[in-house]
Every structure is written in C-alpha cells, then in structure tokens.
Write a structure and sequence with these properties.
Keywords: Membrane, Transmembrane, Transmembrane helix. Its EC number is 2.7.7.65. One of its GO terms (molecular function) is diguanylate cyclase activity. This is diguanylate cyclase. By secondary structure, the chain is α/β, with parallel strands linked by helices. The protein folds into two domains: 225 residues, no CATH class; 173 residues, Alpha-Beta Plaits. The chain is built from 14 helices and six strands. A six-stranded mixed sheet has the order 2-3-1-4-5-6, with helices on both faces. Strand 2 and strand 3 form a beta hairpin. Helix 8 packs antiparallel against helix 9 and helix 11 crosses helix 12. The longest helix has 37 residues. The chain is elongated, with a radius of gyration of 30 Å. The two termini are 50 Å apart.
Length: 409
C-alpha cells in the first residue's frame, strides 16, 4: 500500500509540481481532513460560483422561450414557458437570498439547490416533449433539451471539489439519466443511449479532474497565505480567524477555551550576539518542538517576533496549565551560547476568566505573560504571579500587568 501511495504521489507531483505536499494528497479524495480555514475559504468560493451559475441560468433560461415560440406549437410552448419562468424564478431566488456563512454544509446545500432546479426542469420538460410528435426543426430543438445533463455535469468543472464530492454531486444526474432509459426500455435506441451515457460519464470524469486540480491549487495558495514563512506556524491573520471561529463555537456550546501566550526569554541577546540567522534558527527549533509535543487539535500561531499564541479549544484552565508544563518539560531548544531556550507564558481561559470576547482573552494572556517576565521569566502565569522566584504556576484573580518594558524581552 505504501508503494502504491508513493507511486501515486510521484505521478501527481509530476502533473502538479510544487502545489501539494505528500501529507495533503488525501485531501484531494475527501474533505474530512481539510483545515478549518481551507474549508471556510472553499465554502465561500463554492457559494460564490453557485450564485454566478444561478445568475447565468436565471437570465438564459427565459430567453430560450423565444426560440421555443418560433418552432413549437403554442400549447407546448406555453407549458415550457411556464416551466422556464418557474425555473428562472428559482435561480433568481438562489442568487438573491443565498449567502456564504463559511460552513461547508451550507455550500453543499447551495450546490444541491443549483443542480436540483435544472434536473427537475429536465425531467418535467422531457416528459412533456414525449407527448408530442415533433418533426423537422421542432424535433431538432426538442432533442436539444436532452443535452441539459451534459451542461450540468460540465459545470462541475468550475467548483474546487474533492473526488468524493464530485461523485456525490454527479450521481443523481447519472441516476436520473439511467432511470429515464429504463422507463423507455421498449422503444429505446440502445446504441445511441449507451453512447450518450458513456459521454456523460466521461464528462463527469473530466469535470472531476478539473475540480481536484482547482482544489490542489487552492490548497497550495491557502497554505502559503495562512502559514508564517519562517516557522511554518500559522500567521497572525490566520490565527485571528481561527480564534474567532473557535471562540464563537465555544460560546455557543458554553465550552472551555484556553489560550497560552508564549514569549521567548532574552531573545534579543541571540540576535545581537549571534546574528539574525541564529535567531531565526531558534524560532524554527522552538516551533518544531512545540508542534511535535502539543496536543492534537491545538493550534500554534506566530503572533509577532518571538511571540507565539497557542490556541487550545475545549480546554479548561487546569488542562491548559498541564499541557503547557508538558511542553516546557520537553524543552524549546538550545541557545547558541549554551543552555536551554526558555519562555515566559501567560494563560487565560474563557470561562474561568469570564471573558466574552477573544480579543480580551488574548490581552489577558498577554498581560500574564508580562507578569511572568517580571516575576523572573521561565515560568507560567495563570493569574497573579507568586512572589517567590523560580518557575512556578501562579493562580488567583487577575490584576492588570504593568505596561511592557523593553528590558524584559
């Protein structure tokens, strides 16, 4: 299995050089392991393209009635025109009232509505046309209605979808086509039907390939946008987006939510004494150490310079303290002059600190980090720092820390 995965990976990297990492290969098949930020951006993009598709159909669907009026008898034209009016109104409603909320299931719902409207129109119009004996130009235009499924499946190509998602979206259309053939079993032109169905499957495959290529490109772009280029931790802007998302979820379910603000001690001495390359290496090593030992589900963001924010969803104050002590015991790397890299850390938690806004939670963790620096560095503060020296975990009610002092860096 590993050999097959390696072979597939090398084939894909040859087709899409520089776009994907090997750990992201599975993201092309299923969306379940996508990052929350990728899911939100993809959801927004899908809904926007659904609305674009809906706009085109809302405009073009009624315009085709002009051609129907020229070639079809009036009773058939009037019924088709009524169907087109209803379909156009449905597309217009989708365009006007549907908006993205960053939820992927909301985007799936938009796609389902987009594809359901023309599918229902196709079934209804196809059933109606079978009751009329059309000849000449009328028969040619009537046959054009049978191409609607091809248009729908070709439209899949504009969406950045994983393989599983493309299959789920395309399946109802393929099933409807197969059922329509079954209902006309006795009078079916089987060679023509088989060729048309095979063409539908082929278009589905090409559209799915276009979708996963879009998805691969989007994964690469989002990775570059949300990661700090030096440390590969999340950037500050993406960290703020993650904070907003998880804090809102914690508020809705009244769940715990903790933050740890980490600032490396005496980092300026490394830059001044050994150069910025040594400082960069210290940051990289620290990030690798934290990423290797932090819990699954926690998120590390570089907040600025040597400051990092560890976001811990579903974590109470005591759990956060325990997790941070475990990180400290594993170490943050070695200083160029010898000795371990240490950090001053402040912890804040939504429920324990009665905070109603994630920005205030960050401020509180930041203030406690400065309290840790003033208390002697290399320590964790969950509240008011203890007076005795040494690495301790303080507790108690919060009091605002003094303003930042450059000497504490």
């Amino acid at each position: 299995m590993n050999q097959v995965s390696e072979m597939l990976w090398h084939r894909l990297t040859g087709l899409m050089p520089g776009e994907l990492k090997q750990s992201e290969l599975g993201w092309l098949f299923s969306p379940h392991r996508h990052l929350s930020l990728l899911a939100r951006r993809r959801a927004g993009l899908i809904v926007n393209r659904v609305r674009l598709f809906a706009f085109l159909f809302a405009v073009l669907t009624p315009l085709w009635s002009i051609i129907d009026f020229v070639v079809f008898p009036f009773p058939l034209w009037s019924q088709l025109a009524a169907m087109r009016f209803v379909a156009s109104a449905a597309f217009a409603s989708l365009l006007v009232y549907y908006r993205s909320n960053g939820d992927l299931f909301n985007a799936y719902r938009a796609m389902a509505l987009l594809f359901a409207i023309p599918t229902v129109f196709y079934v209804a119009s196809h059933t109606l046309l079978t009751h009329y004996q059309l000849t000449g130009m009328s028969a040619a235009i009537g046959a054009g209605y049978a191409f609607l499924p091809f248009v729908l499946l070709g439209g899949l190509a504009i969406f950045p979808l994983a393989i599983a998602e493309s299959f789920v979206v395309a399946s109802p259309i393929l099933i409807c086509q197969a059922v329509s053939g079954y209902l006309r079993w006795a009078a079916m032109d089987w060679p023509a039907f088989t060729g048309a169905f095979w063409l539908l499957v082929l278009i589905t495959g090409v559209a799915a390939l276009a979708g996963i290529c879009q998805l691969a490109f989007m994964i690469a772009l989002v990775r570059q946008a949300i990661r700090d280029p030096l440390t590969n931790a999340f950037s500050r802007s993406s960290g703020m987006e993650i904070l907003d998302l998880h804090f809102t979820m914690a508020q809705r379910s009244n769940a715990p939510f903790a933050l740890a603000f980490l600032d490396l001690d005496h980092f300026k001495r490394i830059n001044d004494g050994y150069g910025h390359e040594a400082g960069d290496q210290a940051l990289i090593t620290m990030t690798e150490q934290v990423s290797r030992h932090m819990r699954h589900g926690d998120v590390l963001a570089r907040w600025g310079g040597e400051e990092f924010l560890l976001i811990m969803p579903g974590t109470g104050i005591e759990q956060a303290r325990t997790a941070i002590e475990r990180l400290r015991s594993s170490g943050f790397g070695q200083r160029p002059e010898g000795g371990p890299v240490t950090a001053s850390i402040g912890i804040a938690e939504r429920r324990a600190d009665h905070v109603g806004d994630w920005k205030r939670l960050v401020e509180l963790a930041d203030q406690r980090m400065y309290a840790a620096k003033q208390g002697g560095r290399d320590r964790v503060v969950c509240g008011v720092p203890e007076p005795e020296p040494g690495p301790v975990v303080a507790s108690g009610q919060h009091t605002p820390a003094p303003a930042a002092n450059p000497a504490l860096a």
